[in-house]
Amino acid sequence: MNLMKLSSSKDNLLEKPLQYIHPELYLILIKELEHFNLHPYDVKAGAISNQVGITVFLRYGENLSHMKEHYWDWKTIKEDQVEVKEYFHSTGEDIKKALIADYFKMMKP
Hints:
The protein has one domain. A hairpin with a 3-residue loop joins strand 2 (about 45-50) and strand 3. The model has no long low-confidence stretch (mean pLDDT about 90). It has helices at about 10, 20, 25-35, 75-80, 80-105, and strands at about 15, 45-50, 55-60, 65-75. It is built from five helices and four strands. Helix 3 packs across helix 5 (about 80-105). By secondary structure, the chain is of the alpha+beta class. The protein has a four-stranded antiparallel beta sheet with strand order 1-2-3-4.
C-alpha cells in the first residue's frame, strides 16, 4: 500500500464525484459495470486526487451501506489500464452480489 494513500476522515470532505475528478476512469467503471447489467445509479463513485495519484471510493447496496476504496498512482492509470479494469470488474461482481442479497432481504416476509 502506498504511503500517499488518501483516506483519512478529513480527506473525505474533499471527496468529489469520480466523473468530475477523472472522467476517463468513470467511463471505464461504467463499461465494466455494464458486463453485470449494472447502471451508474447502482453505485456512487467518488474520488480524491493529488499530484501523486487518486483514491477512488465506490459506495453501493441498500443505503450505500457497502464501500470499497482503491488507490492508484497516475503512472499506473496511464500505463496499466488492465489493472484498473480488473479492479472495477471484480468490484462489479461484489456490487451485483450485494444488490441480489439486498433484494432477497427486502422480499423476505
